[in-house]
Amino acid sequence: MIVSDPFLYENGTAESIGKSLKGKDVAYFSEIEPNPSCESVDKAAEAARTIKADCVIGLGGGSALDVSKMVSCLVTNVGSIYDYYAGGTKQLQPRTTELICIPTTAGTGSEVTNVGVFTNKKAGIKIPFVTNEFWPDYAILDPELTFTLPPAVTASTGMDAFCHAIEAYWNKDSLPICDMLSLGAMKMILENIKQAYEHPQDMEARGAIITASLIAGISFSQTRTTGIHALSFPITTEFGASHGVACAITLSAFIKISGEKEKEKMLVLANYLGYASINALSEAIEKLMISMNMPVRLSQIGIRESDLEHITQVGLKAAIIQLTPAIMNEETVYALLKSILE
Amino acid sequence: MIVSDPFLYENGTAESIGKSLKGKDVAYFSEIEPNPSCESVDKAAEAARTIKADCVIGLGGGSALDVSKMVSCLVTNVGSIYDYYAGGTKQLQPRTTELICIPTTAGTGSEVTNVGVFTNKKAGIKIPFVTNEFWPDYAILDPELTFTLPPAVTASTGMDAFCHAIEAYWNKDSLPICDMLSLGAMKMILENIKQAYEHPQDMEARGAIITASLIAGISFSQTRTTGIHALSFPITTEFGASHGVACAITLSAFIKISGEKEKEKMLVLANYLGYASINALSEAIEKLMISMNMPVRLSQIGIRESDLEHITQVGLKAAIIQLTPAIMNEETVYALLKSILE
Fold this sequence. Notes:
2 copies of one chain form a homodimer. With 342 residues, the first copy, chain A, is an alpha/beta fold. Chain A has 2 domains: 2-140, Rossmann fold, CATH 3.40.50.1970; 149-339, Dehydroquinate synthase-like - alpha domain (Dehydroquinate synthase-like, alpha domain, Up-down Bundle), CATH 1.20.1090.10. Chain A is built from 12 helices and 7 strands. Chain A has a 5-stranded parallel sheet with strand order 2-1-3-4-7, sandwiched between helices. In chain A, strands 5-6 form a two-stranded antiparallel sheet. In chain A, a hairpin with a 4-residue loop joins strand 5 and strand 6 (125-130). In chain A, helix 3 packs across helix 4 (62-74), helix 5 packs antiparallel against helix 6 and helix 11 (308-317) packs across helix 12.
């Protein structure tokens, strides 16, 4: 069963992959919305169980890949995603259905991680589900699949990948091997994202970004993410920003405060990327985002000062926020958000 | 069964690991020589079969780890290593015996590769055996196990790891992800090897080198090595140099010629490591080796001009030599060797 975004079914991409699987019975499920709900997961799982799918192929952005991960597990695990996640107490038994992930955006890295992010409509929040059963068996990268991404999506997903890399790098649980992967991924993204944004069919730039996204995915799948992702969850769920925008919008501010406990390491990063100081890197990132028409102030996406306390509260509930190399409490998080309000 | 170097059995290290495996019957095999022969492998395999080993733990330098890999396969694969390697036509069936590798030198990276190098006494040559069955199930790094390495071994094994990283980096089959790992591993080695050489019990330096060795191992296990390793085989087998010395002795010369097809990429490397040019990097490596009392000229290890043609011939037989980013033929290889004779 090929699980894809509706667009990729309608434009024939899913079917062209299905037809290439000679001698296989292929079914399609394409009712995936952005920030997919648990209800969509259950619906896809029911379809996969009905046909006893022996392989689930996720095709699309993070949403389709994340759904494909959970669906591949639910083929042989009874019940609903709610039984295993968001308060559910059942343990997933080992996945026996093969899982192949083919990203069509270059940003989530979901094709190489053990993470799926789902929106729990009952509780009204978006939270990650982490399990070893989610590591895909295969990831297939084809830069051409990203040629048709609108420039705004190229920008936001590419900056999401950059956030994965930098959050793994400054992470309190960082590892030397992940530092190396993160440094390289960040460099590849900075050197190519503007080109991919302006020239959507540039094979080299597209190839570099999708490769960097995968590499950043390997990196943060070991360390997890930090404050950027923690704050992105309420910004996406409650203010409708895309995941990449919701992450990137706090990136420059987090770069500035990341020097608190990791000054030397952050300076190595800034120098490696060609900047003389941590602040210079922060400013360059903001400038790059502006040049790609990305919002850099919370007010640009409809957030008001009166919302900041709530975003702070929800963000602090995500355990990963404490992997940020800075003190993260009601006061400091509020101050960070306030600094990028207007 | 714990397969170890004799020294590690005699000094009690193997037994202390064996005793920590509470409730397990542990056997020991420690008759491993440097550049292990196929005969030693068969002897160890016979011992493992007799006790029906369900897990083989390799403990030691590259020799012990490489032997442990083949032994773990031969527990359930009938016959001799010669049946599968060096002209043998049998195919290894999937390994069912668990394989754990614990390196006590920081250089081979064997704990994370699918390669074993054995000396075929019948043919008088040392050649690598590559198979997916050799990927260990677990690698365990303990910097303290390297505290007792003599300075000369610290130097030669550390430079071997450096060669793995640089050969993956300039490799014709290089990959972005391996480039990142290699860059980081080379930096860690250059920043720490002298400290580990001079202060054998420096935990931080030892930890950095053994970690870098593992990371370089992951990198070159994807790309394979190049001319340095190809030429090291005859230099070791026929002139008795240790593997690390036999590799490092051609390193500076290979750095100089690697700019032939990879000038830009090699300059990125030189700059990243703090040098203004490829030649400056080459010279710095030679200076570093001299400061650690390593030979940098072939005549220092008893090789005469009349030997160069033979080394050239044998080196050119190794297919990996053609992964070097330079023309490798009788003329160019001879010239390279000649340039570092005296």
